[in-house]
Each structure stands twice: as C-alpha cells, then as structure tokens.
Structures
1.
Amino acid sequence: MADQSLLFSRIVTDLPETVPFVPPEELERKTGVKIRLRLGANESSFGMSPLAREAMANSLGENHLYGDALSFDLKEELAARHGIGKEMITVAGGIDELLGWIARVFLNPGEPVTASLGSYPTFHYHVAGFGGRLHQVPYRKGKNDLDALADTARHTGSRIVYLANPDNPTGTWFTADELKEFRRQLPADCLLLLDEAYIEFAPEKAHFPVDPADPGVIRTRTFSKAHGMAGLRVGYAFAHREIITAFDKIRNHFGVSRIAQTGALAALKDEGFVRQVVREVAAGRREYEAVAKTLGFTAYPSATNFVAIDTGDANRAAAIREALWQRGVFIRIPGVAPLNRCLRVSVGTPAERQEFVRILREVVQEL
Amino acid sequence: MADQSLLFSRIVTDLPETVPFVPPEELERKTGVKIRLRLGANESSFGMSPLAREAMANSLGENHLYGDALSFDLKEELAARHGIGKEMITVAGGIDELLGWIARVFLNPGEPVTASLGSYPTFHYHVAGFGGRLHQVPYRKGKNDLDALADTARHTGSRIVYLANPDNPTGTWFTADELKEFRRQLPADCLLLLDEAYIEFAPEKAHFPVDPADPGVIRTRTFSKAHGMAGLRVGYAFAHREIITAFDKIRNHFGVSRIAQTGALAALKDEGFVRQVVREVAAGRREYEAVAKTLGFTAYPSATNFVAIDTGDANRAAAIREALWQRGVFIRIPGVAPLNRCLRVSVGTPAERQEFVRILREVVQEL
C-alpha cells in the first residue's frame, strides 16, 4: 500500500467492500427514480404511537443532554412487562447494533457460526466483520430447516446459530415447542440467537418463553417494526446476566439517543396502539395473499408486517421488481436462491396497499 | 465457567468490568441526590438551534422510516462547508462510536497506541476493547506533552496517537503550526487521531488544516457540544478516502437516527446560533476564571465549553466535589494525578453560572 498509515487490521483488510443493504435513498439517487410507495424495508406505515410522539415532542428541549447510559427507565419497564430482572436486559441502537455486539462477544477470529442461507444479511455482515466463519443452511419448503441448522451447528462446532422467529425474509414462523426442541438439539457451547424483530405480529404460541436460568439463548427485539420507530434506533435483548455484563464491557455506553429512550418508553405503555397495528397488518397480509393467488403466485404464510410473494421464477421476480421500481414502488427481493423468486412487500396502509396492488397487477399483465 | 455457552471471546474475557463514565442519572439513583445543576458532562446549556428544533418537530411523523444509511445530505453540507469531498467524510452516532471504529480498523490485538494519561476515557476503553495496548504520557504543565507523545509513539511503534485539540479534560489547546510540527514527528505508520469535539469554541489558529492527501490524520467532530445535541448522537470524521472505505466495511450502516440527521443538517445551517453560543461560553469562561482566582485557585486557559479549575490538591478537589454533589451540583474531576486536583465545570447559562459560583464559594468557605 502506498502509505504506511493505511495499514488496517488483518480482519478489516480481508473484508470485502460490501454493505448489508443499499438504502432506498441511495437507490433513488443512483437511478433518478422518486419513491412513491416505500414497501421494501418493512418499516411501519402506521407510524408510532401518538403517546410516543407527544412524549418526544415534549422532550425536544432536552436534546442537549446525553441519554442515560443505562437506559434505566426503559429497562425497568421492559423488565416489568416481561416478568424478568433488569439485569437480563440490554438496550442498544437497534438489533443491528446488538448483532455486532453478539458477534464481538462470542467469536474469536475464525470461529464458526450457523445461519440460514438468505437470512438477515446484517448478521452475516457482523460475523464477517469480527472474523467469524459463516456456515449456511438452505431454507426448506420456505422455512428455516431446524434439523439441518442444528446438524450444521453440531458438526461445524458453531458458537452461534442465528434464527429469526418470525423469519425475515420469508415471514414464516415456528411454535415455542418447535423452538424448544431445536434448542435441545444444539450443542452445549452453541448459543441460540433468536431474532424476534417481528414477534409482536406473531401468534402467542410463537413466543418462546424466557428462561433466566438458560445461558444459551439471546433474544433480540426492536421498536423499529410494530412500534413504528425504525428511524429512532432502539432495540433490546434478553439474555443471561453474564452475557449482559459482557456487553457492558464493550458497548458504546452513551449510544442510545435520549429522544429514542423517551419515545420507546412512551410507546411501550401504549399497548392499544400496537394491538391496532397488528390487527391492521393481519388484514393487509390477507389482502396480499389473495392478490398473490389471483396472479398465479403463492404467498408464504407470514407472521410479520410483510409478505413474501413467490412468483415461481427468479427472472420474473427481478423483472417485476424493476418494473415496480420504474413506477416508484420500492420492494426487495431476497439475495439468494430459491428465495430470490419472491417479492418481499411490506404491509402498508389501506391506501398504500390498494395502490401497490393496482400497480402490481398492471406490471404483471404487461410483462 | 459453569456453562459452556458463556464462553466469550478471548479479548472480552480479559476485559475488566469498567465503564468510561458513570452517567449522572446513575449517580442520582445510587446516592438519592437530585441534580439541580448539571455541569459535569460538558453538555450545552444553550440547547440547540431553534431551526434544528423546528426541523425535528416537523419530522416527528417520519420516525417510522430508517435514516439514510449514507447520511448523504449531511455529508454533502459538511463537504461544502469544509471544502472537501464527501468521500472524505463519515457520519456516526457521536465521536464515541467513531473511536470504536478507529480502534477496530487500525488495531490488531496487542498493538500499541499512545495517548495522554488522563485523556478521554472512552478512547482508552475502545482501545482495550479491541485488544490494543495503551501507552500513556503524563500531561506537562497542564497541557498534552507533544514531544513526549511523539517520542512514545515512536519507541513503542504505536499505530495511533490520540490528541484532543482543544483538550478534554484540561481545555487547553495548540496552534495549527504546533500540530503540524507534531504530525511531522510521528512515524510514517502512526495515525494522528485528532479529536476536535470542542473545535468550534477554539480560536481560528487552533484549526488544523484538512489535507486530503495526508492519509495519516483522522479528525473527529460532533454535534454534541457547540450545537447542543449530545442526546441525539451524531458526530463525523474527516479522513483519507481509504479510511472512510474501511469504516464502511465494519460500521453499523443504519446506526444514525433519522431525526439526528435532520436536526444536524438544520443546525449546520444556523451559523449565527453557534457563534452566539461560542460568545456566551467565552464570557462564562472568563467568569469562572475570575472566580477561581478569588478563591485562590487557578483556571487552566480553556478553548472549550468548560473550565478546569485547579484547586492545588486532589483531596481538596474531592471534598469540594462531594460537597457540591450534596447540594445537587454535578461536576467531574479527572480520574488521574495530577489532573485530579481539578474541578471540571461546564459553562452554563448566566443563571446557572451565578448559582454555581454562589454554591462553590459557600462550599469552599465551609471546608
């Protein structure tokens, strides 16, 4: 390298120049398209609780103060709602940040990790970013293949197995009983990283119970989805207290913004708002499923705020996405086969859904 | 360890359970004291620009959307104002986050770093957090000892030398010419990490010029101080484009909140507000300096929004801090000798300064 100052660490030197997701704003800048329907990032078109908005508006005069590095009030409220101790909770700037902490805390360079092929790219990114080696297991019939994941975790000696429940990008889910059986199949030194970003949209039986005595499970959650606060950057994790202590040794202690703490605390208390969002999203999923059928596609059964519509063919999916994009509709297609036959579409408001369905029909007919 | 799941990475296992700063909220919870005057974290009592507040209030309906992972608009404005290319800028959730990226990008485990003894604890924390070895150089006559820092960087083979200009916790500063000479003394493979968190408060001649051709300097800046946005978590760095590219390989791409991007962009455009804050802070520093003198103490010459008042004795300083705390006044004392003789006090509003001075006089007389 030309200059000796530009000697980076071994891990960073070996990393590719890739990013987990190109943001929609950058896609707009690159293509000159202006987005009219933003349904590609599973943001909540229903916004956030009016109580959260009010609390944030009232706190605008406090932005000159650092937030509480311990997020004490927010953890206290989470602890009370989930019936667990505060010492089992950490708060971070979204699940993305948590995934980085987890890779950093658990992995030495070169150590193995298992996840589904096509699962959340940001997890894969952080595993690579800390020098981990990712083993990937194909989806099976549109779902994570739990047996194969456990097998791979075992024979590779994985330190972590990542599973999103409900899943992204398929939207599918497992019951707590299935997850408990999966947990039992994992080796004793393999952590189950259960990403529950979409758990609020899932039926009760998908809720894996919190066991404070089990050091082998971390669950990550967020205010980005059902609470409609993706832009605020606040998420949390439940884990054994020794894992929370390990996070405290490395985390950016003042990293969560004060206004996010304020908003999240107020949002937690507005259960009625979240229930209403969940109901509306369920109705929207049924609309998308019906439309998929009339177009000759199949929709994966979803317990999230999006639906993966299987067009049966990756080229067709790509063509549809491009035609949608040219009409200002932002959706995503998962990056790898066979999921790349699917259009992943967020459930928007009734008006957005109507507009999306109208344009989708138009596009499919034209192609 | 009892459970094999709790096997952490070698670096994390070796880390102590310490945090860079205990937040004032936690001090309140631990002691039962209620803070009346919060002058210990160098937050800006002058708040943020009304234009920033208005922009943020108007954007409250957008919090369900992720921010732009590239912070494009904010970088564009920063680039225009500083006359450099966008490719030399990165935006992060405050300087604290940037310091973590820098340690991660430049250090292999065991590699050496140089900083002043008593300089910013969060930098030390991140160096340790990525397995770096910190060499510390005592302050000399209340200032960073540039010659000794360069010597130590050289003989230890340091990859990074950290220098805050203006300095925290002393408030002192160097001219651009002194810094250029310092830069010349550093080995070719040693990065100068210039932390300019307080640069807006410093005289023009303290501004080290940006040289896009120099890959050996990173400058970190923030909206937390002069712009009064500590709670929002937004900072940025200027560096060689290859360093910015390295950050892009590891950073949390969606980590900066949308509302922080909005607020920071609006704040940048309100130069009059920052000028007014800087003038008011300068007046406040003179008040503190005068009071220090009447109490028989000396104030370090400061180009920041705080003043380090040297009481001449560490025990006296500790006693004063404790007495202030019992009266609800939050200030800090640097952690190591000889700086631990100093009270580090943020410059508050005129009313806060008056109240602080009244209580300080009372406390000093009583002790």
Note: The longest strand of chain A covers residues 217-222.
2.
Amino acid sequence: MAAVSLSVSNVKPLGDRVFVKVSASEEMTAGGILLPDSAKEKPQVGEITAVGPGKLNDDGSRQKPDISVGDKVLYSKYAGTDIKLGSDEYVLLSEKDILAIVS
Amino acid sequence: MAAVSLSVSNVKPLGDRVFVKVSASEEMTAGGILLPDSAKEKPQVGEITAVGPGKLNDDGSRQKPDISVGDKVLYSKYAGTDIKLGSDEYVLLSEKDILAIVS
Amino acid sequence: MAAVSLSVSNVKPLGDRVFVKVSASEEMTAGGILLPDSAKEKPQVGEITAVGPGKLNDDGSRQKPDISVGDKVLYSKYAGTDIKLGSDEYVLLSEKDILAIVS
Amino acid sequence: MAAVSLSVSNVKPLGDRVFVKVSASEEMTAGGILLPDSAKEKPQVGEITAVGPGKLNDDGSRQKPDISVGDKVLYSKYAGTDIKLGSDEYVLLSEKDILAIVS
Amino acid sequence: MAAVSLSVSNVKPLGDRVFVKVSASEEMTAGGILLPDSAKEKPQVGEITAVGPGKLNDDGSRQKPDISVGDKVLYSKYAGTDIKLGSDEYVLLSEKDILAIVS
Amino acid sequence: MAAVSLSVSNVKPLGDRVFVKVSASEEMTAGGILLPDSAKEKPQVGEITAVGPGKLNDDGSRQKPDISVGDKVLYSKYAGTDIKLGSDEYVLLSEKDILAIVS
Amino acid sequence: MAAVSLSVSNVKPLGDRVFVKVSASEEMTAGGILLPDSAKEKPQVGEITAVGPGKLNDDGSRQKPDISVGDKVLYSKYAGTDIKLGSDEYVLLSEKDILAIVS
C-alpha cells in the first residue's frame, strides 16, 4: 500500500463536516481587539478550508451548508477532531458546532 | 492568511444562535433592585446584540426567533460559549437557553 | 447601554417557561399542615407570577399552558433557574417541571 | 400573598402525574406475607390518591391513564418527588413509573 | 386505609411489564448443565408469572407481548425491580429486558 | 415449579437478539493468522447458534435479520450478556452489536 | 466446530460498517508533511478494505455508503473496534465515524 500524504488540498470532508484552519491567537488581536491572557489560551476562531456535501436528510437529499470556503468562523473549542499538518493546526468540525461567522 | 479581527459588529450567529452582551452585575441593581452578595456572582442578564436566521426545520424552513436585537434577556448561566472582546463579555447562546425577556 | 432593572412585573418568560415566586416554608404550614424539619429545607411550593406563550409545536403552533398566573403549584426542587429579587426568591421553570396545582 | 396550605384533597396532578400515598411497610405484611428486614427498608407500595388528566399526545389529545384513584400500586422506589403531609408520606409519580396494580 | 397484601396472584403488571419468579441457581443445573461458581452468583433465569397488556403504541393500540405466563426466560441481571414475597424472589421487568425463552 | 434446564438447543432469542457461541482464542489462529498476546485476551469472534424473529418495526412487522445460524461473526467485546453452559461460553447479543460476518 | 480463520478478505461488514486498514504513522509523512511527535501517537488515517451494504432505513431500503474500497480516510481515533491480523492493525467503523476522504 502506498503511503497516505495529508495536505490541506486533499482533505474532502464527508456529510455535514467542515475542515477549518485554526487561527493563531496572535492573529485574532491584530484588528485592535485585545484578548485577556486567559482567553488567549482558548483559540476558537478559524477559517473554513473545505466543506462537505451537507447533512444527509431522511429522504436522501442533502442539507446545503450555511458556510463556505473562506469564511472566518467561531466554533466550540471542545468540538471536533484536531489535525496538525506541518506547523499549522486544523480541526474537522460538524457544521452544527460552528457558532457564528465573523466576516 | 490575514488576521481575524473580532468585533461586536462582525459576529453573525448561525442557526438558532444569538450573540448576547453580558450585563455587569452592578447594572442589574441600578433600578433599585438589590441583589444579595451570592447572586452578584451569577450574572445571568444580558442584551441581545445579534440574532441568527433561526433554527432549521426538518422541511428546510426556518423557525423565526422570538427575540430581537436590543432585547434584555435572562439566560441560563452555564449555557453557551463565553467570548471576551476588549473589556466586555459576550456569550453565544442557543435561543432555547434564553429563559425570559426583561423588557 | 442602560442598566437592566429586574422586577417582577417586567419578566416575560419565553416558550414553555413560567416564572414562579417561591413560597417561604413557614407559609406552607399556615393551614395547619405540619412539615417535619427535614422537609422544611426543601421548599417546592410556589405561586405562578408569569406564564410564557407555551411550547412551540413542530408545526409552528403553540401548546397552550395548563397553568395560569396565580396558581399555587408544586414543582421539582432541582429544576429551573433561581432568581432573587430583593428579599424574594423566584424560579424560572419549564412547565413540564410543574408537578401539581395545589388550589 | 396568602399562605399555601398543602392537604391531600387539594393536590391536583398535572399531565401524566399521579399522587400516591406511600404505604407503611408494616401494612404490607398484614395479609400474611412476610417481608425480610432488608426489604422493609424499601417501601414501594402505595395507594393512588389523585390522577392527572393524562399525558399530552402530539396531536393535543390526552392519553387516558391506566390507573384510578384507590388503586394499590407498586412503583419504582427511586422515582418521583417525595412529599410529607403531617405524618403521612406521599409521592408524585409519572404514570410510567408505576409498575403494577396490586388489587 | 386498609393494609396492602402483596401476593403472587394479585400483582397485575402495567404496560409492557412482566412479573417474573426468579429461579434459584440450584434449579438451573438440574438438567445436567453444570454452572461454574462465578456464574452461580448471577441468576438470570426465571418463570413468567404475570404479563401486562403490552406497550402502548403511539396510536393508542397495544403491542401484544411475545411471552406468556409459564414461559421460562433469560433476562438481564441488572434490569427491573426486585420484589421479595415470603422466601421467593420476583422481579418486575420490561418485556424488552427479556433476552430469550428457554423452553 | 420444575427446574429450568439451560442447554444450547432450548435457548430461543427474542426480538433482534442472537445467541452466539464464543470461539476460543486458540481457534481464531488456526488458519495461520497469528494474533499477538494482547489481542488473545479479547475474543470477539463467535458462531451464531440461534437467531430471534427480528426487531419489531413500528408498524408491527419484523425486520428480517441479516445473519443466520452457522455464520461466524465479529462482535463488540463489551456488548451483550455472557452465559456459560458447561465449559462453553455463549453471549446473547442484539443484532446491531454484530460488526461483520467472517465467512 | 471448525476453527474461525480471520483474514482481510473474509471480513464482510454488516449495515453501515466499514473495515479499515490503519496506516502506520510513518507512512502519513511520506508526502513531505511532517507530523510533530505528539501527533504521531494518534494515527487517524486508514484505507477502506471493505464496505457494508449501508445503513438500513426505516422503510427497509439501504442508505448507499459515501465511501468505497480503496479510499484513504480520516476517522475519529476513539471510534470503532480495533482488530489485529498478523502485524497489521484494522478497525471496524461505522460510516458516520469517517470524517473525510484524503484522496
């Protein structure tokens, strides 16, 4: 079996899942918003890198996702599966764990 | 990737979520209502800052939220995700965790 | 932002929630019913102060509540959210946590 | 606010709830059935004192209860809410927690 | 109030419940099957003594039980409510906790 | 009451349950597959001995099981109820706890 | 009873289950992606070896799986049942525990 190469471009989420690049906590304050120390340890902001086809409905149709590639989002810190590619952190989330778009 | 700037005006809740500014416990007593010490440590009052499009129904329609931007609300203290922007505290809640409007 | 003033008259429960004034344990025995010491520490009696519009059904209609303002009720001690206004205790309950009317 | 007087006759269960007078463990053996010591500490027998209107169905109708006032019943020991009126013990149960009628 | 007499013949299970006489572990080996010591401590065999009318369906009909009075059954050891009548042990089970008939 | 004799041939599973003879871990490696020591302690292979009529659907019909008597199966190690008959181990499983057929 | 021989080719998953060969953590970095030490201890990549017929719908039809034999996938590390065949590790997963295809 050939080796599996993980890179950002070849991760295709299934169902209602989305692939999110975790924003470093330094970046979150670049716009002048100062986060207190305790908050810096809880990065909950990221950018959507890939979106699955959507949740499968009972009748076999798909629920079109409300978010798109490139959206900056807030998500539940304890949700999803963390994945590290090189020095970057990613998280695979269910769409329902995304709380808000921060456009 | 450009930095993500979090500010009150650019948080757009998804689904049935609402963005609420947490009221400081001092303010809650301004109208003459005195809260005992133990209660002061449990701020459960806030003002709605942004409202999502509403919960997605099984048929693809949306359940219109019962609350609006500007409403003062009581909410479950342990619900939602806390977010700090500068010196202000916010919370992202599901509409179902809002208990009452205090108009 | 103006301060939020909590008072009995301006709490408007949402959905299937009701606002209940907790009866002091002394009052519960006024009719001649003597409660043993251990029971006195578990006040589960109150008077309905405000009633929400009712639980939202799946078809968008509301389930009319079975209780009304002024009803004396028994409720589950560990249910709901406690709220103190001045020296009075209140609780915000879901209607399903109200066990019986004690008329 | 007037005091709330709790007495057997004025407890009106809501929904699928029933009001049950707990039988003293002495009484349970009166018919000649001897309960060992360990069992005596788990009274799970009672008599129905009041019955609610029944569980609300999704279509707004009520599910007529299978038990009636006066029925002697076995119930799950850890179910419901205990209430003491004078020297008598009562329990407010959901009908589903009643296991059997012992007629 | 008259005393409640518990005896085998007057226990009438409600809903999907069945009343089962627990078989002593000695009896289980009478047919020549030897149970090792550790298993003897987990009696999970019994005989059906009474059967309820069956689980209530959503449309108000009853789901006829698959077992009958007199059936020997295997059941989940930790399910149900134990009841002791004289020197005999009984258990009130939901039909779903009965695993198999051992005819 | 006569004694209950447990033997393989008289166990009739109810509903979606199946009766499975646990394969000894020695047997699993007979085809040349070597299991490491740690895996030997987790026998999760067995042979179907009896199959229930299938899960009851909401409309009263039965869901025909996907497995048959004689199938070798892999099942979740922590599922079901263990039963020992003589020196043989059996397990009563729900069909959903069977992971795969190893034909 | 004949011995059960486990080999890759004779494992036939039931329902919505899939049989996945776990990729060694060395292989995952072959394409130039360097995984930090802590991540190496969490192999969550594998290749689909066999696919079940799909989840059974309520109407008796099957939900066709979204993945196929040969797909490289990311899956939840703590999901499923581990199986070791010779020196290779496999996992039996429900399709819903597969997060993404990494083609």
Note: The two ends of chain F are 43 Å apart (CA to CA).
